[in-house]
Write a structure and sequence with these properties.
The protein is an alpha/beta fold. It has two domains: 23-51 and 317-611, no CATH class; 63-311, Rossmann fold (3-Layer(aba) Sandwich), CATH 3.40.50. It has helices spanning 2-17, 31-34, 38-60, 114-122, 149-158, 174-185, 227-231, 243-249, 286-299, 314-339, 359-380, 383-386, 398-426, 446-474, 490-518, 525-554, 563-568, 572-590, 594-611; strands spanning 66-74, 80-88, 97-103, 126-130, 162-172, 192-196, 216-219, 270-273, 478-480, 483-485. Helix 4 (114-122) packs across helix 9 (286-299) and helix 10 (314-339) packs antiparallel against helix 14. The chain starts with a helix and ends in a 7-residue tail after the last helix.
């Protein structure tokens, strides 16, 4: 029998040598989903990336009428700064244009300001969308050197094609504080300022007075989550009655939105705009962007009179979203093509039969898997502070430290629940390690485990390669709103490798749940993907509803003291959607949890680290 098996093995190996390297080891498990050939889905994914990139590039350059340059410069602090410079055609040293420094908020990057930057540039303004210190590609640490605001204003003023008598400052959230620091450092270096979802008098920014800052516009949305932090009002729509804001306007009665107080020529002009959106929604609001455009058209000389309502920036959001969808779709045909190579063929195995579970037990698993993470987010993300764990050279990102503290704790709790469930229920049903996606025919094979890591690296690397090409060709990345997939700097790459380890633990445990507790052998691939994704991502949608329904009704969130982490959790919905799709697909195609878990951990480490602030100098 042994010699017969060896003979069969040799025949299979010999046949494999004569096949094309991408010939199928086995047919797709759901031909309708993968369109019988991965090449078709691959072509669709690449087409989405290309069309999205072209659309985003055409929009941010206003159809070729604006050039967009990727900048690096050294600030007086010695830190290397990063920014995107938007220069309208025809602007030269002989024909200078007014300039605007546009600065993003905390844990965002220069691209987040593109809606404002595109519309400013379309109206003839030179725009510097700068990365704050410790954000994007600017040197850490975050919060240093006036958040990078003074360096941005100084660089903008150094350009010989910028009219230094007509410079504006625009900043969103903490970017408004950066703009305030720039106005304080160079009090004669600007003419007007727009604070979007921001305030004066916070974190070293001086309190506003009727004379400072010069020509102030406050654009504060009616559902802004940070109204208490910014202006001392629990309900954002009441900001017009905030004593702090009234002091900056030099009045003691309720401020009338849209009314200009003071004098533009004297630099004492004040105006309050209240767009109908929330704090992060300022970036997706034609009203908020139009308010900023209107203010600079009134206070700076040299721009065009193109109506503030004439806007095109949202097509860039559509373009980068299409590219992001294309990159996610790309992962599936690439995974199939890798699994059909001789090298990774031993990772392609049929999943073990699912563990029999009665309907109430299955629903209990669904509820726990969907809600455990969202319900514990606000509690466990604060563990680093409570334990005295400060950002360090090894773990330099404060927010990411909170994320891994939360995910690791949730992973440990989930592992304990899995073990309890196994010994109470699954062991009686004869559950095996294969049915948990941990072994191959009852055996753990180190070679296959290691190849699963390499497989994940090649899979995620394929997506990353398309991003690098998109950034090179179109000066854009993959994003929608606050969710961004950015190229990693060398420092961020090193950091992502470190954070991969705790993320890998979490996603291994989570994938075991998806494989053993949620999967059903008689489901189609499509149903597996839908259920897995809905369970893993659905809890975060419920979290948003729980926070924002009270906000819509009463003006404050249910947990009003967690505005930052509520907004941070916006990213978890698309992230867990992608993770759910990867789990459902790769669990079915590989028969184990390792390829999907490692791919998810690499992808999430990349996305999270590239999007976060670095808090220690490195």
């Amino acid at each position: 029998m042994q010699s017969a098996a060896l003979h069969d093995d040799a025949c299979r190996h010999g046949a494999a040598l004569t096949r094309h390297p991408f010939a199928g080891i086995r047919p797709p498990s759901n031909p309708s989903l993968v369109m019988k050939s991965p090449r078709t889905l691959l072509l669709i994914a690449l087409l989405l990336i290309l069309v999205g990139g072209i659309l985003a590039w055409r929009t941010q350059t206003a159809g070729g009428r604006v050039s967009v340059r990727d900048l690096r410069w050294v600030a007086p602090s010695g830190q290397r700064m990063s920014g995107l410079l938007y220069v309208p055609n025809g602007v030269t040293a002989e024909n200078p244009a007014p300039g605007i420094a546009a600065i993003h908020g905390y844990i965002n990057s220069r691209e987040t300001q593109s809606g404002f930057a595109i519309e400013f540039a379309r109206r003839g303004f030179v725009v510097l969308a700068a990365d704050q210190t410790g954000h994007g590609y600017s040197d850490p640490p975050a919060f240093s050197a006036g958040f990078g605001g003074p360096a941005a204003l100084a660089y903008l003023r150094s350009l010989d094609f910028v009219d230094t008598l007509n410079i504006g400052l625009e900043g969103h959230s903490m970017g408004g504080w950066a703009a305030g620091m720039a106005a304080s450092a160079l009090p004669d270096g600007y003419r007007s300022i727009a604070l979007v979802g921001s305030s004066t008098g916070t974190l070293g920014v001086p309190d506003g007075t009727p004379e400072w800052p010069r020509n102030l516009a406050v654009i504060f949305s009616v559902w802004d989550e940070f109204s208490q932090t910014m202006w001392g009002t629990p309900i954002a729509r009441d900001v017009a009655m905030a004593p702090k804001l009234q002091a900056a306007f030099g009045i003691e009665e309720e401020i009338q939105p849209g009314r200009i107080y003071g004098s533009i020529p004297n630099g004492t002009a004040r105006v309050l705009y209240q767009p109908r959106t929330n704090h992060p929604g300022d970036h997706l609001s034609t009203e908020a962007i139009g308010n900023a455009v209107e203010w600079f058209q009134m206070t700076l000389d040299g721009g065009s009179d193109l109506a503030p309502t004439n806007q095109i920036w949202y097509w860039k959001e559509v373009g980068t979203l299409l590219s992001a969808i294309g990159m996610v779709l790309l992962l599936f045909p690439v995974a199939l093509m890798l699994l059909r190579t001789d090298y990774f063929a031993d990772l392609a195995s049929k999943p073990a039969p699912s563990i029999p579970t009665r309907r109430p037990g299955w629903w209990a698993n669904v509820v726990i898997a969907a809600l455990l993470g969202p319900l514990t987010l606000f509690t466990f993300k604060g563990l680093p502070e409570r334990l005295g764990w400060q950002p360090s050279a090894l773990f330099p990102q404060s927010i990411t430290n909170g994320v891994i503290a939360w995910t690791t704790t949730v992973g440990l709790l989930t592992l304990v629940l899995l073990l309890l469930w196994h010994f109470v229920f699954n062991r009686k049903a004869g559950a095996t390690s294969d049915q948990y996606g941990l072994t191959w025919s009852g055996t753990f094979v180190w070679r296959r485990f290691a190849r699963s890591i390499l497989f994940a690296l090649l899979l995620v690397g394929a997506g990353y390669g398309t991003l690098l090409l998109t950034a090179f060709l179109f000066q854009t990345d993959y994003r929608f709103w606050v969710f961004a997939v950015k190229p990693l700097s060398p420092l961020q790459l090193r950091t992502a490798i470190i954070y991969f380890v705790p993320f890998a633990f979490f996603f291994l445990v989570l994938d075991i749940v998806a494989y053993a507790q949620l999967r059903r052998s008689d489901w189609s691939m499509r149903r597996t993907l839908i259920v897995t994704t809905a369970v893993l991502a659905g809890g975060y949608l419920l979290l948003y509803l729980a926070q924002y329904v009270p906000m819509a009704l009463n003006g404050t969130m249910a947990i009003a003291d967690e505005p930052l982490w509520t907004i941070i959790s916006y990213q978890f919905l698309p992230i867990m959607t992608i993770v759910g799709l990867l789990f459902g697909f790769l669990n079915r195609e590989s028969g184990t949890v390792y390829p999907g878990a490692f791919a998810a951990a690499m992808l999430v480490s990349w996305i999270v680290v590239a999007s976060q602030a670095t808090h220690v100098p490195l």
